[in-house]
Design goal:
single chain, about 260 residues, alpha/beta, Rossmann fold, 7 strands, binds NADPH dihydro-nicotinamide-adenine-dinucleotide phosphate, binds 2-hydroxyethylsulfonic acid, NAD(P)-bd_dom_sf, oxidoreductase, Short-chain dehydrogenase
């Protein structure tokens, strides 16, 4: 394991789930953290917790869909934070589970604007600095949904297939530089993901994970940490990480 102590990592979607777990695990590894999300109060609560352990934190209240806001937030990063070593493009969501021909166009736009365009904006604004400083690692959080489309998953699955394609393209375009690109593709992880998908219908959200042992956000953060702590000549290009109770996008083992 190579130390990442003292490096600067920017985590999008740090207010919940996988992003918050990455923040905690990176903090324990001695990383300086830029935490980004829309819900400021959540970020502040996490920051307070991590600062008590000695972690240096900078908060960005940011909607990744807002290209102008992303550009100005990143350009305005004060000196100690402006050289980002690790970018975790994690912010993302699903909305609804509908047949494509019956789906909500605004839901599609929200997913594509967040999962694809938001990830692109962060990448476009931060990777040039990584190339310039001769050091950097981009970790994109994709999904098994980017490998296998499931019924009614259509646009969410497309957004995650795009994350895989973008990760592959970025890796190709960075060939010849030391900057690494990893895509981590989890299966079912119990977070607020399904609450958001079903717009606060917690009973329905719970059924997604009922009777099986899903991944925890910490399981995914652990994989992310593994990827960024390999020696500089090793690029873990793609990781598909599933619960033992899951063998495909729709193939799960439920006890009840
Ligand atoms: P959560 O809902 O718990 O977290 C999602 C995070 O994304 C929140 O911090 C949220 O912050 C942030 N976010 C959403 N929209 C925006 C936006 N427009 N601008 C900035 N931040 C935003 O879900 P997960 O932790 O599960 O999801 C994290 C990633 O993991 C997503 O990309 C998801 O697609 C992916 N994933 C999840 C799986 C799962 O089963 N849970 C499996 C595979 C992949 P805020 O609302 O405060 O802005
Ligand atoms: C989230 C996993 O299967 O709920 O990307 O779409 S799934």
């Amino acid at each position: 394991m190579v130390s990442i102590q003292g490096q600067v990592a920017l985590v999008t979607g740090a207010s919940s789930g996988i992003g918050a777990a990455c923040a905690k695990m990176f903090a324990a590894a001695g990383v300086k953290l830029i935490l980004a999300a829309r819900r400021r109060e959540r970020l502040e609560a996490l920051a307070t917790q991590l600062q008590e352990l000695g972690t240096e934190i900078h908060l960005l209240t940011l909607d990744v869909r807002d290209r102008t806001a992303v550009a100005s937030a990143l350009q305005a990063l004060p000196e100690p934070w402006s050289k980002v070593d690790i970018l975790i493009n994690n912010a993302g969501l699903s909305r609804g589970l509908d047949k494509l021909y019956e789906g909500s166009i605004s839901d599609w736009e929200e997913m594509l604007d967040t999962n694809v365009k938001g990830l692109l904006y962060l990448t476009r604004f931060l990777v040039p600095g990584m190339v310039q400083q001769g050091r950097g690692h981009v970790v994109n959080i994709g999904s098994i949904a980017g490998h296998q489309t499931y019924p009614k998953g259509n646009v969410y699955c497309a957004s995650k297939a795009a994350v895989r394609a973008i990760s592959e393209g970025l890796k190709q375009d960075l060939l010849g530089t030391p900057v690494r690109v990893t895509v981590v593709d989890p299966g079912l992880v119990e977070t607020e993901f399904s609450d958001i998908r079903f717009r606060g219908d917690q009973e329905r959200a719970k059924t997604v994970y009922a009777g099986l042992a899903p991944l925890t956000p910490e399981d995914v953060a652990d994989v992310v940490l593994y990827c960024v702590t390999r020696p500089p000549h090793v690029n873990v290009s793609e990781v598909l990480v599933l619960p033992t109770d899951q063998a495909g996008a729709t193939l799960v083992n439920r006890q009840s």
